[in-house]
Design brief:
The complex is a heterodimer of chains A (339) and B (332).
Chain A (H helix, E strand, L loop, with lengths): L2 E14 L2 E14 L3 E5 L6 H9 L7 E10 L2 E2 L5 H7 L4 E4 L13 H13 L3 H14 L5 H4 L9 H13 L5 E5 L7 H18 L2 E6 L2 H7 L2 E6 L2 E7 H6 L4 H8 L39 H5 L4 E3 L5 E3 L23
Parallel strand pairs in A: 3-8, 3-9, 6-7, 7-8
Antiparallel strand pairs in A: 1-2, 1-4, 4-5, 9-10, 10-12, 11-12
Helix pairs in contact in A: 3-4, 3-6, 4-6, 6-7
Chain B lengths: L7 E13 L5 E13 L3 E5 L6 H8 L7 E6 L2 E2 L6 H10 E4 L13 H11 L6 H14 L16 H13 L5 E5 L7 H18 L2 E6 L2 H7 L2 E6 L2 E7 H6 L4 H9 L5 H6 L30 H5 L5 E4 L2 E3 L6 H4 L4
Parallel strand pairs in B: 3-8, 3-9, 6-7, 7-8
Antiparallel strand pairs in B: 1-2, 1-4, 4-5, 9-10, 10-12, 11-12
Classes of the chains: A alpha/beta (339), B alpha/beta (332).
Chain lengths: 339, 332
């Protein structure tokens, strides 16, 4: 498969009064053409910052990409001047945000907001753009698009607004779509509609999707590959089956076992004790060591290298070192087929 | 279910809460809801945003005045005219934990004063030494320590703040706690911590919970019985295992099938019931059954007649015409 987007050892820091917050610390992953990759993690794990770094949407004054490369079709986006970035943002790579309430402009009609990108990137005439906007609304399942394009965001419900946001993101046929918690603000029945729509659209358009979420259910539903983030680093990557049925990192075990399973009888959830690390003073060793039940001396002092489990599966954990003791994942972390 | 012999702690009878939106329009947030809560159990209340689950909780505890119907706590009406003393007694027995741990703690008060506010009001401590001791004990109960007592809320993470909220609710030794989306604002790993804490406290202190949430899998985990709400109505109520294994109401069925399961194999193979359209406005709800506009099984009668709240099986209540005697004869 062809690598469409590749991140190599990306570091992102924020400069605050308290000092330098190292939000992303050496993240590497790639995205293939037409696939969907999920980045999973808790708040503060750096998943949103990573995606904003790709889009170069981080505030200029207070943050910087300190190290690393973001390669998109051979170009390094991390070093691209703003002018060049404008040609990529919205055209080649576009983004959907969590809250459809705030990501639309309340003073512009829906039609105008969809046409904005078309007019800028594809030099369409007004009538061409309008026709395309109507088709896009039809594509994302909004009834009466001819009338609806003249309406404003407040006239749409939450689910409908998220459909509009998706239509805007897909307007220029981007090669990559970054969806940052696209369904978190929506109710379950509406979430099911939107997930269905996204899967459908990916089949039709072949756009590669980076899905950022904390919901493992959504991951299982939509993703082909998964990267698990913790404390600004990627701790495990693999295909969706490898992550759910053969997880190797204790943090992934913790995530899987702290979710109640609908079919399991009610027993105590296995919670991960403690809280995520403070990235103002990130730990020297493995970021998860302080909360890990299997932490060893080496974990506290040395960052584990990413170890290959299979050709598609990697985890950064000292337990995978040949000198480490053998540890089995807790029973609560076993999902369906792994039993 | 064994719940039948148990003692009723709370009875909600035909509870209504209507809000006046403007001169003509009335928003019926809760419209004729009845259920009981037994001593020592956890009743879960689920539904999508705007279905009235939070309003139900807030009306039970009298944060809202009920429009109609009654709430009986140990046989006594919570609403209606009361002396200050009677009211205080209710307030001690019933406590609430709120959704947003950032908005529900006063940022200008120390943790100690937040927790002790109820102790002061109800004069549960004789002197400041006893007051301090109680606060320290509560902090330890919820998994914090006494060094935290003199700090302010902004110094804590979301999960820790929710623990402070729980300690505040426990301070007055309540019997009944309404938890309104207590874990929605927290991360997955922290959610499990808070849910485990709530379950541990229930075991130790014999508490009764009304657990309001939209996360169905968490509700199933913590609850003995679960009620499902849609647009101000209770549509189904049953033991939590029974509800999840054999949902009767079409809305419950759709809701359960919409939850994404963290298991790729299951996700690939299962058939979803995807509901068309959006929630209708509660200001002008559909006639008859409120779910009929999105219901895959809607019949003529659904538009005309409000479905009865009936016990379709023992301990399993549902409001749907599919389970009426006369329609059942024609076959589903």
């Amino acid at each position: 498969m062809e690598k469409l987007l590749e991140l190599k050892n990306v570091h992102v820091s924020f400069h605050t009064y308290g000092g330098e917050v190292k939000a992303v610390r050496g993240v590497s992953f790639h995205l293939e053409k037409g696939e969907s990759l999920a980045i999973v993690g808790e708040s503060g794990s750096g998943k949103s910052v990573t995606s904003k770094a790709v889009m170069r949407l981080l505030p200029n004054k207070t943050s910087e990409i300190k190290e690393g490369q973001i390669l998109f079709e051979g170009k390094d986006l991390a070093r691209l001047p703003e002018k060049g970035m404008e040609k990529i943002r919205g055209k080649e790579i576009s983004m959907i945000f969590q809250d459809p309430m705030t990501s639309l402009n309340p003073t512009m009609t829906i039609g105008k907001q969809i046409m904005e990108g078309l007019r800028k990137h594809q030099n369409m005439s007004k009538s061409e753009a309008q026709e395309r906007a109507i088709n896009l609304l039809k594509l994302v399942g909004i009834p009466n698009p001819e009338i609806r394009i003249k309406e404003y965001p407040h006239q749409f419900s939450g689910g409908m607004r998220q459909r509009v946001v998706i239509a805007i993101a897909l307007a220029c046929n981007p090669k990559v779509l970054i969806a940052d918690e696209p369904t978190t603000a929506l109710d379950v029945t509406i979430q099911a509609q939107i997930l269905d729509l996204m899967r459908d659209l990916q089949k039709k358009t072949g756009t590669a999707i980076i899905l950022i979420t904390h919901d493992l259910g959504v991951v299982a539903n939509l993703a082909q590959r998964v990267a698990v983030m913790y404390g600004g680093t990627i701790v495990e990557t693999g295909t969706v089956d490898e992550i759910f049925y053969n997880p190797k990192h204790p943090y992934t075990w913790g995530l899987l076992s702290s979710m109640p399973k609908l079919n399991a009888e009610s027993k105590e959830l296995l919670a991960i004790p403690g809280t995520p690390p403070d990235l103002l003073n990130p730990p020297k060793g493995c970021p998860f060591a302080a909360r890990c039940p299997h932490a060893m001396q080496v974990c506290l002092n040395h960052m584990p290298e990413s170890t290959k489990v299979s050709s598609t599966h990697q985890a950064a954990c000292w337990l995978l070192d040949e000198r480490a003791p053998k540890v089995e994942p807790p029973e609560a972390a076993l999902v369906g087929g792994a039993r | 279910m064994a719940t039948m012999e148990r003692e009723k702690l709370l009875e909600v009878k035909n509870l209504k809460k209507h809000f006046k939106v403007d001169r003509k329009a009335v928003l019926k947030a809760v419209d004729d809801v009845s259920f009981d809560i037994y001593k020592g159990e956890t009743l879960g209340l689920v539904g999508e945003s705007g279905c009235g689950k939070s309003t139900t909780g807030r009306t039970i505890i009298r944060l809202y005045e009920a429009t109609d119907g009654e709430v009986l706590y140990e046989g006594k009406n919570v609403h209606g005219k009361k002396s200050a003393r009677e009211l205080k007694e209710f307030n001690r027995k019933m406590q609430m934990i709120f959704q947003d741990p950032y908005a529900s703690l006063n940022p200008r008060m120390t943790v100690k004063d937040i927790i002790a506010e109820g102790i002061d009001i109800h004069r549960l401590a004789k002197n400041s030494k006893e007051r301090n001791e109680r606060v320290y004990e509560l902090l330890e109960t919820v998994g914090l320590n006494k060094d935290h007592a003199n700090r302010y809320p902004h110094e804590f993470s979301g999960g820790q703040r929710q623990r402070i909220g729980i300690a505040r609710a426990l301070a007055v030794d309540p019997d009944f706690i309404i938890a309104d989306e207590p874990i929605s604002a927290l991360d997955v790993s922290i959610q499990a911590q808070v849910v485990n804490l709530l379950m541990k406290l229930q075991k130790e202190r014999g508490l009764t919970y009304l657990f309001i949430a939209h996360d169905l899998s968490m509700v199933k985990h913590i609850s003995d019985r679960v009620g499902v709400m849609y647009l101000g109505n209770l549509v189904e109520l049953a033991g939590s295992d029974e509800l999840y294994e054999e949902p009767l109401h079409p809305y419950t069925q759709a809701l359960l099938s919409a939850i994404p399961v963290p298991d790729p194999e299951v996700e690939r193979s299962r058939e979803r019931i995807i509901l068309e359209g959006d929630l209708p406005s509660p200001i002008n709800p559909p006639s008859g059954c409120r779910f009929r506009t999105r219901c895959p099984h809607a019949m003529d009668v659904c538009a005309r007649v409000n479905p009865k709240w009936q016990e379709a099986r023992e301990g399993h209540w549902v409001a749907c015409h599919l389970y009426d005697q006369e329609f059942n004869k024609e076959g589903k």
